[in-house]
Amino acid sequence: MKEIKIIVATLMMLMTLPTQAQDLLARQAPIDRKMKAVDSVALIRLIQYEQFESPAADLYEDWENHYAHRATAVPDSFRIDLRNFCMPTDSRVLTSNFGSRWGRQHKGLDIKVYIGDTIRAAFPGKVRVVRYEAGGYGNFVVIRHHNGLETIYGHMSKHLVKPDQDVKAGDPIGLGGNTGRSTGSHLHFETRLCGVALNPALMFDFRNQDVVGDYYLFRKNTYSKESAQATRLRGVGGSSVAMEDQLDMPGSASAATAAKQAPRAATTRLHKVKKGETLYSIARKRHTTVDAICKLNRISKNTRLKMGQILKYN
Question: pTM of the predicted model, to two decimals?
């Protein structure tokens, strides 16, 4: 009888073990879910930290503070987020297009600014290069952005940021100038993807002080056609600037042809200074006054003009 009691007790104990195990698992489940949530949060924070430390790290192999650009493989297509932007300058006047110019490739847009004008970061990101280049960009800054782009700001009179500094869209990064290989105060603005220069007019509309949309989809097989179209729509000679603003650059339309293409409502007119010209000869040629030219360009009658300098005349 005693042996039977022992057997029954043993069986009863064995029968309760799965229930106890299930209870243990049930109690453990919330802990596992909590740990999983903690792991997910930690992973997200780690990814955000890496992106903060090295923007667009999935596109670029390294981070260095010396070279302005090194071309690497560009994806066949890539969507660039243009939201949360800031126009790098308030100026609406373009003086040179992206593309062929004077027998070489011009890798950005030139925008008329004056010495001392504030230049701002176009998107959030991290400053990669702050340097001076006498034969090229002059005082320039390169910023790598979280959207995959790198932007370059050239010919500035002064830097306002340092390498590895984090910036937000709209933060001042420099002052307008005429340093380096430049014939007049202006901002040279580049947009690059994996070191390859893309036409900024594909993304930025300086005349309307806006971007073209929330996103720009870069596609290798259609880029050239889209770039040419962007220049026609938003480059030098568009609807807000008279076509003589083509500034007689090689490859530009003649003034007569341009006048047919330009709307009559054009408001801003520019003159590119030629060898031997003075404020008085320019005023006579453009049917205006020296005082008016000086006021528009914030210069004095004694200002020494440089060949190639861009002047407003109305």
Answer: 0.63
Q: How many CA atoms does the CB half-sphere of 5 hold within 13 Å? A: 2
Measured distance CA(59)–CA(149) in Å, rounded: 10
**Across the strands, what pairs with 133?**
138
pLDDT mean for each 10 residues of the chain (314 residues) = 60 59 61 62 57 69 91 93 96 92 87 96 97 95 97 97 97 96 94 96 95 95 95 77 35 38 50 86 85 86 85 81
Token pair belonging to 192? 């690059």
Q: Could you tell me if 187 and 91 are in contact, meaning their C-beta atoms sit under 8 angstroms apart?
A: yes
